[in-house]
Amino acid sequence: MRSLVFEGRTWEVYEDLRQRDKRMHKNLCAILKEMLRADPSAGLGKPEALRHNLSGFWSRRLRGYPEQNLHYL
User: Fold this and answer.
1) Are 45 and 30 in contact (CB under 8 A)?
2) Which SUPFAM superfamilies match (predicted)?
3) What is the pTM of this model?
4) Domain residue ranges of the chain, discontinuous segments joined by +
5) Using H for helix, E for strand and C for coil, what is the string for the chain?
6) What's the pLDDT tens digit per position in 37-72?
7) Which listed residue, 5, 11, 20, 35, has the most CB atoms within 10 A of its CB?
8) What's the CATH fold of domain 10-72?
């Protein structure tokens, strides 16, 4: 089973996002839920394996926010 861990200031940023941008927060929640129940290489946000020194990590795009990506293991 997969788990979700917020490291460093990420929880503060997540909580701030909930207040500042409800649309982005909703999109982020949908991606996080899918990541927990699915294969990291499938689903919402166009999953992409990262390369070079980030090999083993994945990236997903937040819908409607092309400059924002979520990186994860």
Assistant:
1) no
2) RelE-like
3) 0.76
4) 10-72
5) CCCCCCCCCHHHHHHHHHHHCHHHHHHHHHHHHHHHHCCCCCCCCCCEECCHHHCCCEEEEECCEEEEEEEEC
6) 778 788 888 889 999 999 988 889 887 777 788 888
7) 35
8) YaeB-like fold (3.30.2310)
